[in-house]
Amino acid sequence: MYIGKDDKVTTHHALEQSTLDFVHKLEGIKDRDVVCETFQSFTENLGFSNSACIKLPEKGEHLRDCVLMNTRPTQWSNEYDNRNYYFLDPMARELGRSYLPFAWSDVLQTRRLNAVENSVMSLAEDFDMDSGFVVPIFETSGNVALVSLAGKAVDMCEATRGAATLSSIYVHNRLFTLGRMAHEDSVSLTPREIECLRWVSAGKSDWQIGRILNISSKTVNYHVENVKRKFGVATRIQAVVAAMRQGKLSV
User: What backbone phi and psi angles, to 5 degrees, belong to 114?
Assistant: First the structure.
């Protein structure tokens, strides 16, 4: 079927609008499962059958503990995990070479895969995944994450790539935020930690806080660092914000 230039423009604009509608809808969802279902529905309309949102494992971490979302076929996920395919997957390896979103076809056209990498791609084809799109995401914490979409014979046109990129960034952000909020709600602070953090929020130094609470500045620093560790944040300001969201610093 011939698709004229005007039809392509109309389709492109319609996809842009549906992507913006998706982003707007996502902002009001507070349930993780609903976020995943909404993203799955949106990406199916792009031609993808499944997706995964993963924080790249750090040393000592297992892949299964870094998954924020996974709608891949269960058997595929089990085999991928059991065979440690993450470290052999050419698309995962491409993250070390590219900071930009890329289609699987982009990788396959630019370099020759070795035997092990080919076995990963062959397994994907066995599960009707011969097309894919990967969106690298760089978190403020310094961690690297990705959203990976896959399906069969997906049209990787410019409009599809744009919609996949924007929606992936937003779904990761929403899942990350909901996960962080759930973690913060489970954090318990001691009365002394709350006292120290309250004075930190008032702009006091460790020395000043120590004088106020009649403890050493080293002890103040110990308590504040412990709060940062509990919340999993990098700075004091982030710890204060996390505690405020919990209502811990309310008068």
Answer: -85, 180
Are residues 49 and 150 in contact, defined by beta-carbon separation less than 8 angstroms?
yes
Q: Are 98 and 80 in contact (CB under 8 A)?
A: no
Task: Give the separation between CA 168 and CA 38, rounded to whole angstroms.
Answer: 12
Could you give the C-alpha distances from 205 to 74, 145, 193, in angstroms and in order?
A: 52, 35, 15
Average pLDDT over residues 80-108: 91
DSSP 41-83: HHHHHHT--EEEEEEPP-TT--GGGGEEEE-S-HHHHHHHHHT
Which residues does 213 contact at the CB level (< 8 Å), separation at least 6?
A: 192, 195, 196, 199, 220
| Identical fold, 5-184 and 188-246 | no
Q: In what order do the strands lie in the sheet with 144-151?
A: 67-70, 50-55, 144-151, 131-138, 102-103
The predicted-structure confidence for 145-170, as pLDDT tens digits, reads as follows: 999 999 999 999 999 999 999 999 99
Radius of gyration for the chain, computed over Cα atoms and rounded to the nearest angstrom = 23
The second-level CATH assignment, the architecture, of 5-184 is 2-Layer Sandwich (3.30)
Class of domain 188-246: mainly alpha
Is the model's pTM score more than 0.85? no
Mean pLDDT of 19-25: 94
Distance, in Å, from the CA atom of 62 to the CA atom of 242, rounded to the nearest integer, reads 27
* Tokens 């389709």 belong to residue: 11
User: Would you kindly state where each structural domain of the chain is located, as residue ranges?
Assistant: 5-184, 188-246
